[in-house]
């Protein structure tokens, strides 16, 4: 949609997602063309993969082979209501609610993709520790210059769709607010029978959305975000060649095999210097690498890169920092690669939460240690110590982002997604099951 009516409608839908609630949803449905989204299967449990995070096969790819990123997102940050450990009735309510929305919308970007994940604070209520096959520490600061709040909610539901109405509809159904969704009747029980919504976080990614929503703190007033950019900083991201496959981020053994870990941080953006003082070449240097700036490798938002930003051409980050006085964001992390691929799978998106341009940086990895290794490479401490590059200045994009909150979560396999015990195989969990029966 390129006409002004289309843009108005897109801005309206994005605003409705940010506001949320039944009236925003019905305003959206009343104002737009009728939503025509296929329904999901009668029995999602038998039709859907055990890996909740197996989204790639359900996503279309662009002409270059990059996965499409669903455009609208809601993150429901949830607290468990009970005093002790979850009961079977609560587990059944949560499972029924999740299954209800899966029956309503097909599992795709046009329909709905979702995950539910749990924090170390959630698992602390069980006697048993998480099994050794799960690496899920409490979040912490990962550089000298960040001081994030710990995201200490119990659980996060991530809803993703190309249609704002779908994520909003799913949210209302999970809260037990609608009896029917996309013509499919919803269960009596709701997610909120066992979990309370502490905070809703929203966001978007995709061509045009950042430019249409740049009237927020952190972006200069003159509207500098390129019209076709998928993210506020103006470049395509998460190219196929710079992402690992889902196998590399999946837990391979133990009771949570088939799951993954999720790192979720809120990064606020300050793009004044980025757009007002930095030149286009400086932006390319800082995001990719100086080589790409001098060779003109990146055109516009970088669509010309196809599915591969050619990071091998960037050269050694320390040498670049010494000779150019600047080093690229993605250039710094190439050494962390395994089999020529990064070890974290990025599924981040932009946000206007709190009227501030920000990023909900969401990544999946087999262990949180894989995230820490990658984030430490992004700090570029060694590069800065050995060159004129500063701790944050000319050091990739560190100067423009501030990590205000970080959380670590376990995305269990689908069969354990409803209020899982900490160690489904352990004696302690068995004893707890017996005690509850
Ligand atoms: C405002 C925040 C961020 C933006 C706009 C951003 C954008 C980008 C862009 C444009 C690229 C190069 C192209 C591509 O992705 O394929 C990239 C690469 C990458 N980014 Fe970020 N990024 C951000 C934050 C982060 C954070 C917090 C991490 C966590 C450590 C991270 C990890 C990575 C990794 C692993 C790569 C690929 C490195 C490789 O090529 O081996 N990014 N990012």
Automatic annotation (TrEMBL):
Regions annotated as coiled coil: none
InterPro entries xrefs: Dimeric_a/b-barrel, DUF7405, TAT_signal
Segments of this protein annotated with the region Disordered: 413-437
Designated name of the protein: Tat pathway signal protein
Organism field: Halolamina litorea
